[in-house]
Design goal:
By secondary structure, this protein is mostly helical. The protein contains 12 helices and 5 strands. Helix 4 crosses helix 6 and helix 9 packs antiparallel against helix 10. InterPro entries: DUF92_TMEM19 (IPR002794).
């Protein structure tokens, strides 16, 4: 077997540092200028070498790609620059899905929401909002033709505009800003995170209960009088929609728990607060929405009130009940 003369590391090209399984390779000797063959044992597949973080994600690691990606995204504290860059990458890759559920202006509003969310709560907070969007879009598309025939479908084939995005996320954005600027200090950082999760649990539950009720509800009741009304009537509820709304809230709070956003008791708080808030939203819709003197109280404004109630209730439950027992 021929021997290999000592070669300074700088003389070895990056390609020669990554040896594949083979029998013979050749290195150029700096002393003789000749090609000296050496035999590489079958058991040796790689020569140890310093590699960049990008080189570390090789084809052999693709099976763990989602975990690797999340590790990279959470590798450093979020800044405004990293939040914008992360959202640009994700929105570019996910644009076909996003455009199926958002108008062009709605997508712009969602981008701002994504940046704010990532800056405040990093990848877990962003993934929570992404879960809300995917589930909410899916139920909105259910039996869309039937909903359109009944006149109760969302406009633009279910694609939400900026008003809907803002109405669905106003409370969450407020919580994100309070967290970013450390309002109340470290003692309140957990409170803002809880309120953020509760706001999206509330909105997802409201969206799912409404859309499932329109698609599959057999009988809809007006909450103020319990009279039977057509599906899609403001303030109307159905058994099918109510059950689906509760399950969706449980789903999102569970996702939040496994991502470390809230504890198990806080996840339960989010579910309870969301259901109380949705009962209040149905009452407001039935009694006041776009009635005489309340023309300003449209669906987007009611959404803001709904998620705000859910967030406030979650905070009050945490402060008055759970913290009071400690």
């Amino acid at each position: 077997m021929a021997t290999l003369s000592l070669i300074p590391l700088a003389k070895i090209s990056p390609q020669s540092r990554r040896l594949s399984r083979c029998d013979v390779v050749r290195f150029s000797s700096p002393f003789t200028g000749t090609l000296n063959p050496i035999t590489v044992p079958k058991s040796v597949s790689r020569v140890p070498a310093m590699v960049s973080p990008l080189e570390a994600i090789s084809l052999s690691n693709l099976s763990g790609f989602p975990a690797n990606l999340l590790d990279l995204l959470r590798a450093s504290p979020a800044t405004w620059e990293s939040s914008i860059a992360s959202n640009l990458a994700i929105f570019t890759l996910g644009s076909p899905l996003l455009l199926s559920g958002l108008s062009a202006l709605g997508m712009g509003s969602a981008f701002l929401l994504g940046v704010l969310t990532w800056r405040a709560f990093e990848a877990p907070g962003f993934l929570l909002v992404a879960t809300y969007f995917v589930v909410g879009t899916a139920v909105t598309k259910l039996k869309i033709a039937q909903k359109e025939a009944l006149g109760v479908a969302e406009k633009r084939m279910g694609r939400r505009g900026p008003g809907s995005v803002i109405g669905s996320s106003a409370a969450g954005c407020a919580c994100a800003l309070l967290s970013i600027y450390s309002v109340g200090g470290s003692a309140f950082s957990e409170i803002w995170r809880l309120a953020f999760v509760a706001s999206f649990c509330t909105k997802l539950s409201d969206t799912v209960s409404s859309e499932i009720g329109k698609a599959y509800g057999k009988t809809a009741y007006l909450l103020t009088t319990f009279k039977v009304v057509p599906r899609g009537t403001e303030g109307a509820v159905s058994v099918e929609g109510t059950i689906a709304g509760i399950l969706s809230s449980v789903l999102l709070s569970t996702v939040s728990y496994f991502m470390g956003e809230v504890s198990a008791p806080q996840a339960a708080i989010c579910v309870l607060a969301s259901q109380i808030a949705n009962i209040g939203e149905s009452f407001i819709g039935a009694a006041f929405q776009e009635k005489d003197g309340f023309q300003w109280l449209n669906n987007d404004v009611v959404n803001v009130l709904n998620i705000s109630i859910g967030s406030i209730l979650a905070v009050l439950m945490q402060l008055l009940i759970f913290d009071g027992w400690r």
